[in-house]
């Protein structure tokens, strides 16, 4: 067997004409000799030239160190809305007027190696350029299905606005099967998803910016973000208007040493009863209470009867974490705060 080389994301191999091979293994390497793909084919095979991506009946799934990557959040949002809009016959593709109410759920199919092509209202490509496999989105009765022949798929480095303003969205369970290791920014990711009641565990270990991530997700009742980690620089408005949110658990490794803006993070979370935020701290420079407005203004507005589990061990300078945050209740720029219990421990 002779290596024929590659063309974009299509890889080829060459055989002598008329030769039958009873089974073989194909491995693909990048320019640094890192193995990208392994296929094992067990059936008899006769050909002159064939795309690896069209081979079927493998003994097992392919093993990928480089997963096909979804579009960045904003482009993914536009592509999905365009697909749903045209599938519903509106034909609206203007980014500013795309309807938000056609998509209610997302699913994933990692075994579907079907042959797809761009077709308005039927199928659209949602993988980033350079992905080893394409990822296609198809639409049916409110459900977007992501289809690829790969064993796994990965999120982009930015998921900004990925599901922004999907007003009818109720399920994003497929995210539990998406590798988010390389995702660093998640701003506006679920903003305005007011029917979304649950979010699966997210494996996002290197995030740096989460402002407005769950803004106005008024149907969420609980969030376990223990898989969302990183050195975060901005969390403002992260849960603003999550009126039914009862509890939030942050990872101990959700670190805010460099965070410059906590404003309105829990504003109007009127049902909030428990926050576990052991990794939070005021930042590299301690902030006296009369300077809190620019950094923490409105952070706990209208939050009542809530226990906040924190750690003063993570505070810096003479202004402990609890002292700084508790001071908000004394300032007129954060109103409606009452019965906040500060607990230097765990629930």
Description:
There is one protein chain. The chain is mainly beta and 347 residues long. Among the domains are: 2-54, no CATH class; 207-347. The chain is built from 3 helices and 20 strands. It has a 5-stranded parallel β-sheet, with no helix packed on it. A 4-stranded mixed β-sheet has the order 8-11-10-9, covered by helices on one side. Helix 3 links the parallel strand 19 and strand 20 (338-343).
The pLDDT mean sits at 78
Q: How many helical elements?
A: 3
Output the radius of gyration. Answer: 24 Å
Order of helices and strands: EEEEEEEHEEEEEEEEEEEHEHE
- Poorly predicted residue ranges: 1-19, 45-65, 283-292, 315-319, 329-333
Question: Structural class from helices and strands?
Answer: mainly beta
> What is the approximate shape?
globular
Distance between the termini: 62 Å
Sheet-strand content, in percent, reads: 15-25%
> What percent of the residues sit in helical stretches (DSSP H or I)?
under 10%
**Biggest sheet: strand arrangement:** 14-16-18-19-20
Major β-sheet profile: 5 strands, parallel
Number of strands: 20
